[in-house]
Amino acid sequence: MGDSRERHLLLRDHIQPGVLVLFVGINPGLRSAETGHHFAGHSNRFWKLLHESKLVSEPLTYREDRRLPEWRLGLTNIIDRGTAGIDVLDTVEYRQGVVSLIRKIRRYRPHIVALLGVTIFRMLFSPKEYSKGPLDLGVTAVELAGAKIFLLPNPSGRNAHYSYHQMLTAFQDLRDLVAQPPRQPGPPA
Fold first, then answer.
1. What sections of the chain are H helices per DSSP?
2. Tell me: the pLDDT tens digits for 52-87?
């Protein structure tokens, strides 16, 4: 379970009723847990991507994470315990975290659940089917508790799999999806 410092650093969710997009991470890093704010790592690009993609209308820092509901955005993690890396998390924590995430989705009913990283997607959906090869970023064919799943790259500075431009494009695609009016049912056949 990691050192005692890791066991006691929990990070609060920022979700309110009416959320359009719920961003989901695996778990907070130590700096985020220590500061009590999401995506507080020095090299994390989440806040810059949110603004540059126009998902939020003004530049924010990790210290303003509680403001995301102003844009109908929310933040949570599969596991709320801060760690130096995901290698110290165990399968029981993941299972409990997934059950908790499903409860949150059912409670808040976001239109879109934006998974921040391929690792989360592979963990939640058929590891055998999605374990090999690259996954396409963007809206997926799967849902979780009735919500669309949108795959975003992990914004951590340690993520070398995607360029900043690729990350920004994915965040812009999410913005475009959110901006689309909901489909109206057609006339009965």
1. 4-7, 30-35, 46-52, 91-108, 118-124, 127-130, 164-179
2. 999 999 999 999 999 999 999 999 999 888 777 777
Residue ranges of domains in the chain, CATH in brackets: 4-178 (3.40.470.10)
Long-range contacts of 48-55 (CB under 8 A, 24+ apart): 49/155, 49/167, 49/168, 49/171, 50/171, 52/168, 52/171, 53/168, 53/171, 53/172, 53/174, 53/175, 54/172, 54/175, 55/21, 55/171, 55/174, 55/175, 55/178
**The dihedral sign for the CA sequence 74, 11, 90, 98:** negative
pLDDT digits (tens, 9 = 90+) for 122-175: 888 865 555 566 788 999 999 999 999 999 998 986 666 789 999 999 999 999
Number of Cβ within 10 Å of residue 133's Cβ equals: 5
- For residues 126 and 86, what is the distance between their CA atoms, to the nearest angstrom? 19
pTM of the complete model: 0.87
Q: Which amino acid is at 126?
A: S
* Residue 166 structure tokens: 């690729």
